[in-house]
Amino acid sequence: MPRPTCSRCQRPLGHCLCALTPDLDSRTRVLILQHPSEAGHALNTARLAALGLANAELRVGEVFDDLPQWLAQPGYRACLLFPGDDAVALTAYAPAEQPLLLVVPDGTWRKARKLLHLNPLLAGLPRVSLGSVAPSRYRLRKAPGEGALSTVEAIVAALDALEAPQRFEALLKPFDALIDGQIAAMGDEVFTRNHLR
Description:
- There is one protein chain.
- By secondary structure, this protein is α/β, with parallel strands linked by helices.
- The chain has one domain (21-192).
- 34% of the residues lie in helices and 14% in strands.
- It has eight helices and six strands, in the order E-H-H-E-H-E-E-E-H-H-E-H-H-H.
- The protein has helices spanning 36-39, 45-52, 67-71, 109-118, 120-123, 151-162, 172-186, 188-195, and strands spanning 29-34, 56-60, 77-81, 88-89, 100-106, 127-129.
- It has a six-stranded parallel sheet with strand order 2-1-5-3-6-4.
- Helix 2 (45-52) packs parallel to helix 6 (151-162).
- It is globular and about 50 Å long.
- The chain starts with 28 loop residues before the first strand and ends with a helix.
- The relative contact order is 0.19.
C-alpha cells in the first residue's frame, strides 16, 4: 500500500517540506516546463521552486500547445534560461526595465534539449544564462559539468542576479532538507561509498 503523501509538496507525510517552503514574491515571472520523466522523481526540485514562488508556474509535458498564450504575458519579456553561444548572462534590472518571463526547462540535459526540439517556439526565444555560480548543493548526483545546478538552484541564482539586492536563498531550505533526508535514508556508509568520490 502506498504511503500517504502531502497533496501540496507530494512528499510522504512524514517528510513533508511545506513548513520549510517560503512564499516569495518576485518581479520576474518564472515558467517551469517539466519533462514528464521528472514529475514523479523523489528529488523534484522544480516543484519546490514553483511552490515557493508566488509568481511561478509549473507545467508538465513534452509538447506544450498552449505555449504561445503562456509566453504572451502582458508586461513581461520572454526568454529561455538555457546555455548557448548567443546566451546573455543575467544582470540586475535597470530601474524602469520590463521584467522577464523566465522560461526554465526541467529535465536531464538530453530531455531539456528534447523539449526545445519539440517546441520550436521555445528554441526561438532569446537565451539567458547564469554568470559564475557557487558549486551545486545537490550532493546526490555528480554534476555533468562545472556550473551545473539543479533546477531550483538555477532559478535562485537567476533571481538573485536579476533582482539584487533581494535574495531568494530561502527557496533552498526545503531543497537542503530534501537532500539531507535522502542521505539519512541511505545511511552514511552508503552515501560515503557511492557519492563522496
